[in-house]
Specification:
25% helix, 5-stranded antiparallel sheet, 5 helices, 161 residues, alpha+beta
Length: 161
């Protein structure tokens, strides 16, 4: 992941964004150039996925219904190309606590996305102290946000066995 082009964000700007409370952070278009945003979003051209524990997926479906993501802020996704591998390594790269993906994580293979964008750090599910500006997790995986994914726009796969 180190060879991927990253936006040039000064340490001062990065520190300011990270210390800004969730809900008040600037949109990425303020501190990233159009070319940087386009280059980042091109990493998702071959498809996007979301990985989560089977337990969290089942809970969300039973509690909120079959659509994925907050209707106001969307949901985080990653390029399909980086979703393979050991769930313990993926947790580290996503900046998650060990075992937070559980024993049998599910992969949501997203067939249709709407409004893909670089995360602002204001999205539902962002954790203070873990989000970093520029569209990469603190473990180095490219991330983006898409609008709510409708139930007929994703396929659930059990890819980690």
């Amino acid at each position: 992941m180190d060879e991927l082009l990253r936006a040039r964000i000064s340490k001062k700007v990065e520190d300011g964004l990270v210390s800004t409370p969730i809900g008040k952070r600037l949109d990425s278009s303020v501190y990233m150039s159009k070319a940087e945003i386009e280059a980042h979003l091109s990493l998702f051209d071959d498809g996007v996925v979301r990985v989560q524990s089977k337990e969290n997926f089942d809970f969300a479906i039973n509690t909120y219904g079959p659509n994925i993501g907050d209707p106001k802020t969307g949901t985080y996704v990653m390029p399909k190309s980086v979703a393979d591998g050991d769930p313990r390594i993926l947790e580290e790269l996503l900046g998650l606590e060990p075992m937070s993906l559980g024993e049998n994580p599910v992969l949501l293979d997203i067939q249709k996305t709407t409004n893909i964008r670089v995360p602002s750090g204001n999205e539902s599910g962002v954790w203070q102290g873990l989000w970093e500006p520029g569209g990469f997790t603190n473990g180095g995986i490219p991330e983006a946000v898409v609008d709510t994914i409708k139930s007929d726009e994703y396929i659930v796969k059990n890819v980690f066995k």
